[in-house]
Amino acid sequence: MKKPPAVRPVAGRLGILLPGLGAVATTFIAGVELVRRGLAEPVGSLTQMGTVRVGKRTDATSPRIADFVPVAALASVEFGAWDIFPDNAYAAATKAGVLSKEHLSLVKDFLEGIVPMKAVFDPGYVKRINGTNVKTGTSKMHLAEQLMEDITRFKAERGVDRCVAVWCGSTETWRAPTAVHETLEAFEQGLRDSSDDIAPSAIYAYACLRSGVPYANGAPNLSVDFPALHELARRNAVPIAGKDFKTGQTLMKTILAPGFKARLLGLDGWYSTNILGNRDGEVLDDQESFKSKEVSKLGVLEHIFQPHLYPKLYGHYSHVVRINYYPPRGDNKEGWDNIDIFGWLNYPMQIKIDFLCRDSILAAPIVLDLALFLDLSQRAGMSGVQEWLSFYFKSPMTAPGLYPEHDLFIQLMKLKNTLRWMRGVELITHLGLEYYD
């Protein structure tokens, strides 16, 4: 095992940069400010409410994660954002309709002070919306340089010592990687040539990595998940993570599927449908954007069930995913699942799930944890893909040649063991060998 890193202490202020100032980002920002003012609790956040066991169970030592590792304090955080609409965070949050008027009124003064910078936008990648607060440039490299200037200016104006970025923008149309994504040299030439294969999210990722800013991808976009930007992350010693926040229906799959597999219950089929009415739902109403989300969602069960190891149980199941845009629902997404399983002697059984969730409420604490953990990773000298943060994603990024781990409980064990390793304490294996010394 590698020697634990020397984690640099927290010093100065942390800037959290958000490409996309919509429902998720404004719910996150407003929530953090409500917590800072003592008006709410950070429910759902591991960094704020989670604990980590240290030593034997008989030691009864389980400090809060925030006390165990040096994550940045909420009081030290500054927010910045880009968006294709010019609305400040209060106006954007009001339009998103996630938080109540009562909650928003308590932090209205703070939210009105967060005005988005002009965004990089390409209508070819997000077809159902169009904005006016967008950058223009002579090339995609010119746009990336403008983003880097934004980062430099934000740090100076807000007195920020270091930054992290978390993509909270829309799902882009699905594109397979091409030659322009293979090497950093090819990618930078593609930026200068304004290659159509380079999406806006990848321009943000490039600008952040060039600026030494850790980057997490909260959508199923290609964004940072290709060799050229993996190479840049390693060169600049910057951590990256992604992709696609694990919130509603997929969260349930990564909770239930490991249980079925643990009991060796077979699967005939899993039908999933969603209705969603926010901006994300409108974007996903376009089939090319939905393709990105479908690819992200469909891979979960295959990796959990491992049909190549259990062909009689999981070798022939049907997995269907649908998303429908339904404006009256707003941000209150409904995920409905029909699961056909079988047990002893192949007798069939069914499970029905109707999850009436709040998409941005589930995503907001993920944004917070990713921002604080990526900052911790950088101070620990950990660069490149941070697989230990797979806990937060539908389609976790991995090192080349490795399959992603989707089991939520294995993901959480890996996350907490990484924190233990950072502190140089014994990892928890659950072997119970202390009773056989």
Describe, in plain words, how this protein is organized in 3D.
The chain contains 16 helices and eleven strands. Helix 1 (23-36) packs across helix 15 (359-379), helix 7 packs across helix 9 and helix 11 (249-262) packs parallel to helix 13 (287-305). The protein has a seven-stranded parallel sheet, sandwiched between helices. A four-stranded mixed sheet has the order 8-7-9-10. The protein has helices spanning 23-36, 46-49, 65-68, 89-96, 101-106, 108-112, 140-158, 184-192, 200-210, 227-235, 249-262, 279-284, 287-305, 311-314, 359-379, 408-423, and strands spanning 14-19, 77-83, 117-118, 162-167, 215-217, 239-242, 266-276, 318-325, 334-342, 348-356, 384-385. It folds into two domains: 14-245 and 360-423, Rossmann fold; 249-356, Dihydrodipicolinate Reductase, domain 2, CATH 3.30.360. Helices cover 39% and strands 15% of the residues. It has 437 residues and is of the alpha/beta class.
Please give the CATH architecture of the largest domain: 3-Layer(aba) Sandwich
SSE order, one letter for each helix or strand: EHHHEHHHEHEHHEHEHEHHHEEEHEH
**Average pLDDT for all residues:** 92
- Could you estimate the helical fraction of the residues in percent? 25-40%
- What's the CATH class label of the largest domain? Alpha Beta
Biggest sheet, spatial arrangement of strands: 3-2-1-4-5-6-11
Radius of gyration: 22 Å
- Anisotropy-based shape: globular
Report the end-to-end length measured between terminal Cα atoms.
Answer: 23 Å
Q: What percentage of amino acids are in beta strands?
A: 15-25%
CATH topology of the largest domain: Rossmann fold
The CATH superfamily of the largest domain appears as NAD(P)-binding Rossmann-like Domain
Number of domains: 2
